[in-house]
Design a protein that fits this description.
Layout lengths: L8 E5 L4 H11 L6 E5 L5 E5 L7 E5 L7 H15 L4 E6 L18 H12 L3 E5 L14 E4 L2 H11 L5 E4 L5 H11 L2 E11 L2 E8 L6 E9 L3 H12 L4 E9 L5 H7 L4 E5 L13 E4 L2 H12 L10
Parallel strand pairs: 1-4, 4-5, 5-6, 6-7, 8-9, 8-11, 11-12, 12-13, 13-14
Antiparallel strand pairs: 2-3, 9-10
Helix pairs in contact: 1-8, 2-3, 4-5
Length: about 325
């Protein structure tokens, strides 16, 4: 790959999802850059780039799920690259933490997603590449260019290969409706939506299914799976209404708390996610299938380097 005006490419990674960063580097035919991220005895984080970054275009790969150390790692790596005189620093954030705190839904609360954007910019990031932000308006929280990528091509290709007979794509709530419609369009599938209310955080009560699911395979589509409370309720409602087989598809596998057990014991046939987040062995279960987003991100980095449009990734 020819060097750009910004100088040779340098790929760096924090510790949040190093296997993904290594896979991206392999797809690009490059070594992963040498950087040290460690903790002092009191837990304070130290970050250092161990090779020349002057005049180079630096891409830092780091999702920002809890704990907050993952955010701090990203900020320190950005700052280290800037102080090392990098020509441009782009951050690849496969999962953007705090994205669900995107507005003032209650009095006297922070807009966490905006604060995270401010911190990334203040550290010195010149560009952001993200995947499946919880809400589209998060792109506007940044004053630097943002490329918002989607895992839909990868997920829909998987379900096309299953050759389901007359599938129905199900949105688990109104917020997921636009994404689910796009998913259904790619699969040439029918569409249904769940009407529910949420009595408290991480609790969901399904009210009704809007759409025809009786005698049909269903694919429940969302951007993330956290505690899986919503998904378990949706699966139960679809089973009661006669769905023949039920799949779940999501970009981000948080799988918090009881999620793995809930999903394994549910009527789901398969849970299909991507590796935007590293899923440790203790969170994995037989019904879970993890697809790799590495090739898509490698291509996005290449297109960014050569000033090509990343929208061709979704054609």
């Amino acid at each position: 790959m020819p060097d750009s005006a910004q100088g040779p490419l340098l790929l760096l990674s924090g510790t949040a999802n190093r296997p993904l960063a290594e896979e991206i580097a392999r797809h690009m035919g490059l070594p992963l850059g040498d950087a040290t991220v460690k903790r002092f005895s009191d837990g304070e984080i130290f970050a250092r780039i161990n090779q020349n970054a002057r005049g180079r275009e630096v891409f830092i790969i780091q999702p920002t799920p809890p704990p907050g150390d993952n955010v701090v790692e990203l900020l320190l790596l950005i700052a280290a690259a800037k102080r090392a005189s990098a020509a441009r620093v782009a951050v690849v954030v496969p999962y953007f933490g705090y994205a669900r705190q995107d507005r003032k839904a209650q009095p006297r609360v922070a807009i966490g997603a905006k604060l995270m954007a401010n911190l990334i910019e203040a550290a010195g990031a010149d560009k952001v590449l993200g995947i499946a932000f919880h809400t589209h308006q998060i792109q506007g929280f940044f004053d630097v260019p943002v490329d918002h990528l989607y895992a839909a091509p990868l997920l829909t290709q998987y379900f096309r290969e299953l050759q389901l007979d007359g599938p129905v794509v199900v949105a688990p709530d109104v917020g997921a409706a636009k994404m689910a419609r796009g998913f259904a369009r790619r699969l040439n599938a029918s569409f249904a939506i769940i009407d529910k209310r949420r009595p408290a955080h991480n609790q969901a009560e399904v009210l009704q299914v809007i759409g025809e699911v009786d005698g049909r395979p269903c694919i429940v589509v969302d951007d993330m799976i956290d505690t899986a409370g919503t998904l378990a309720s949706v699966v139960q409602a679809l089973s009661v209404r006669g769905a023949t087989s039920i799949y779940a598809a999501a970009t981000h596998a948080l799988l918090s708390g009881p999620a793995p057990e809930r999903l394994q014991q549910s009527a789901l046939r398969e849970v299909v996610v991507t590796n935007t987040l590293h899923v440790p062995e203790e969170k994995r279960f037989p019904k879970l299938r993890i697809l790799s987003i590495a090739e898509l991100l490698a291509r996005a980095i290449r297109y960014t380097r050569s000033n090509e449009s990343v929208s061709q990734l979704f054609d």
